[in-house]
Amino acid sequence: LKPTTVKTRPIEGQKPGTSGLRKKTKRFMESNYLENFVQSTFNAIKARGTNIVEGTLLIGGDGRYFNKEAIQTIIKMAVANGVKRIWVGQDGLMSTPAISATIRERGPIWQQAFGAFILTASHNPGGPDEDFGIKYNCENGGPAPDILTNTIYENTTKIYKYFICPEFPSIDLSECGPTNVKSTDGMKQVCVEVISSTENHVTLLKSIFDFDAIRGLLDRNDFSMVYDAMHGVNGPYAKKVFVDELGQPESVCMNCVPKDDFNGAHADPNLTYAKELVELMGLDRKGAKIDTGAKVVQSFGAAADGDGDRNMILGTRFFVSPSDSLAVIASYAHVIPFFRSQGGLKGVARSMPTSGAVDLVAKDLGFDVFETPTGWKYFGNLMDSKAIFQGKDYTPFICGEESFGTGSDHVREKDGLWAVLAWLSILAYENSKVESSSKSLLSILAFDSSNKSSNSLVTVEDIVKGHWAKYGRNYYCRWDFEGVEKAGAEKMMDKMRESATANTGKEIGQYRIAKADDFSYKDPVDGTVAKKQGIRFLMEDGSRIIFRLSGTAGSGATVRMYIEQYEKEKIDMIASEALDGLVKVALELSAIKTYIGTDEPTVIT
Ligand code: VG1
Ligand code: CO
Question: Which GO terms describe its cellular component (predicted)?
Fold first, then answer.
């Protein structure tokens, strides 16, 4: 157990982005690359006062190529840095929300995890020629806040040594159970325990939702569903929930065996990449209905990303935009026991580029709404506000992003399965209402199912359209320009930033710019300020155009263009047609073609 000190040198570019450090796998496999980052993290958390000697370190990943090797290295380094208890997910697998749940739920107080390393590059492709990633989550189960990731980054720029126990045995990750290792003098003992990847998370989900009600829905003859884990880490969780707990056939789970390269695909749940599922649901990649002939289309479809924190929700020939999904779930929160038992929702939050659909629900139902920068770490402070912010409590809390992320304060990460179970709860609720043909008890619900005939299923489409009818529709799309030249993209952003004030008041197309700025956010709980979070053009009629550079791209730059337009009455248009005019304005305002050489996006979501 004797630590060895290894000499190293700073490696440039180890700054964590929106969600950890992501680079090409080969870069991560270069000597000292992983080690430098891990040691810099240990140095940062020790300086912050984390007691790593008493508590437990949790490690898990999304199963991508290099996952297991990285875990063995982190174990050896953790031991050298003084950690005495380590939990590792079986086979090295643990979804991002499951890590969060396990930090928060597992073990008696004195054993609880002080933090976790998550080996993931989320939705980025995996494999020797693709991406790898690592991030650190804190004792609340949430991603390290900016203040900590900044320290980690600073440490990486001045690191000259790291500690490792090269003799520490490699741990067999395939079987659950503890391995105890004693120092030669018998004075010190380290325990590495391989734990179930799914247990803590699934137990938590069972305490949140009414599984009997969901089973009632799934068992109906006229209801069918399919869940696509896209060869990512969520497969085993989906099987536990849908097959073991809810008694459904295995066929419900598609692509549910994790693969280290996600089968060569892009494990990102959207209309472009979840192609197989999208077709099964009777849609094309633009979300338009396709003719499936005699083939019956499923009632419900959902997909996850590589690390299981994202979700896409589909109904029969119907795509639910993530921003709408957030708004619908918030409006139905009280049908979920977790929220009902706590007296209903107290707060909602969305990232700035996410559409304002949820704001309308918050205003209607009277809960606080927050607009935060992109990335999950900003939500955590709001959820933990009671502890930090003079007793003001925003929980229970629901939050989400336009990038297919939804969640609540049951954990401190977005949670793909949670969102799916939330939707199934809503469907179960509406359909049991129809069955008993009783009128809605909760008149605040958007959808009035009392006029449906008793044997027809209330669908996902019915629910979303009911929502639009009540609140109006926030037409929304995001255009991604992936793998573009960084210098050009940065120049374009600088230009828009400089001319923001000049743009205010300008007329363009049928729009008038009420305000143009670069979004900055002052955390209401701890007062920290995040600047340069996206250029916004806020139009007088409430429409918005937003530009950001991605903070998760492994290499090169990705420009994201977000377009939103609100319509109170005209809710039945095709989204791309409704947004056509505003898209043109956005391309003109940014002069994107001059800066990056194209105005053709790689992906539209
Ligand atoms: C993207 C999304 C953001 C999300 C982040 C992490 O970040 O836009 O909403 O929180 O990915 O998601 P960016 O900086 O590339 O726009 V995950 O599922 O990749 O951890
Ligand atoms: Co993810």
Answer: cytosol
